[in-house]
Amino acid sequence: MDADQSNSDSFSSSNLRIIVQKNPSEAQLSELGIKSWPKWGCSPGKYQLKFDAEETCYLLRGKVKVYPKNSTETSVEFGGGDLVIIPKGLSCTWDVSLAVDKHYKFDSSSS
Q: Which Gene3D superfamilies does this chain map to (predicted)?
């Protein structure tokens, strides 16, 4: 993936980083095959999550503030139109303020 760092925000906790790419191009989304990925959604609320594999997701709609555990960083925000990479091993709380609808894929090689 050829991410343009000028429109990406990174988050670091030891070496666990959430990468948010704002408004990826249609060409990039097509290249990744986003529309063939499974979909997942949730209503507003707080969710405790642990990622056992790296997840790449594209939010169709929603707004999320992620609070990583055991980190000096406070939070990472993303929402509809964002392409997000969540590292394997991250434990966090998702504070969902607008219902989420997303395509997602787990990296099977991150075992």
A: Jelly Rolls
Q: Which CATH class is domain 19-106?
A: mainly beta
**What sections of the chain are H helices per DSSP?**
26-32
| pLDDT value at residue 111 | 45
Do 10 and 17 contact (CB within 8 A), yes or no? yes
What Cα–Cα distance (Å) separates residue 81 from each residue in 21, 95, 101, 111? 9, 18, 11, 28
In sequence order, which ranges of 41-103 are alpha helices (DSSP H)? none
Whether pTM > 0.85 for this model: the answer is no
The conformational region for residue 89 under phi > 0 = left, psi -120 to 50 = alpha, else beta, is left
In the prediction, which pLDDT does 72 show?
Answer: 62
CA 18 to CA 30: how far, in whole Å? 22
